[in-house]
Write a structure and sequence with these properties.
Blueprint (H helix, E strand, L loop, with lengths): L3 H30 L4 E9 L11 H7 L3 E8 L3 E7 L13 H18 L3 E7 L3 E8 L2 H13 L9 H11 L5 E6 L7 H10 L1 E8 L1 H4 L6 E6 L4 E6 L3 H24 L3 E6 L6 H16 L1
Parallel strand pairs: 3-4, 3-6, 6-7, 7-10
Antiparallel strand pairs: 1-2, 4-5, 8-9
Amino acid sequence: MISLSDLIKESRKIEIKAKGLVDDNLNGEYKTAFKGRGIDFHDLREYSHGDEVRTIDWNTTARTGEPYVKQFVEQRELTIYIAIDISKSNNYGSVIKSRHHLAALISAILSRSATKNGDRVGFVLFGDKIEQYSEPQKGLPNSMKMLRKLLKSDCMTSTSRPDLALEFIMKRQKKRAMIFLISDFLCPEFENSLKVCSFKNEIISIQIIDPTEIELPNVGKVYLSNPENDKTYLVDTSNKNFRNNFKKTRDLWQTKLDKLFKSSNVDHIKLVNDADCDPAKTLKALFKSRASSKA
């Protein structure tokens, strides 16, 4: 079990890395991608060259004889939920670190981006039930607290239930929210909950994939354990037919998952947990895409 001192050190490392990534790359992109709930009238000022004609206050202009324009401020505060799968399959990592660790870095990046823009952030950690929950709050202390809980979590459940996480959020969140759903999605079907939740909220799914799940390496006979059902199988990875069938089955599953997110109007991104994995770059591309689609 991870010691408290190691836990604090690891969480600080992740937070420092996230801080640098957000400060260098993501803060402005996040703000543009996720608009506030609307705009409020703030003040009037004299017209300046270049101001949009549609912002002119014609009543004030007629009364004073000088052109005046309206100034507005954005209702910035959003409610963000970061829902993270902590079931056993997320402890797996064949190259560098586990999916669990990458999920922690992604969560730190997202929570710091949200916090810097004045948004409230809540967390849901789930396996086959809700393991941890933090109500949406402003400020980094809450995010750091949940980051440590995420790193400390040792969920032994064999099943992931994103449907329960989405239903849990819907019961507590009456107004529209932004939900980041982080998982490998090696789980039972959750289509109904996803479609209902995405109708009332905005959802971005973040799939963390291990390289060996895309293409099995040729390493001879090995035992493969399925953490989602606790079964172990002896397979011969030197058998080309076996590797090809594995890839075909996996590709069909991925296609079905992609179609589910698309039909549910959910933005879906994939991160392969290898040496080239760059979550900040991937998130920045997503934020830019969202901003341009809403321009």
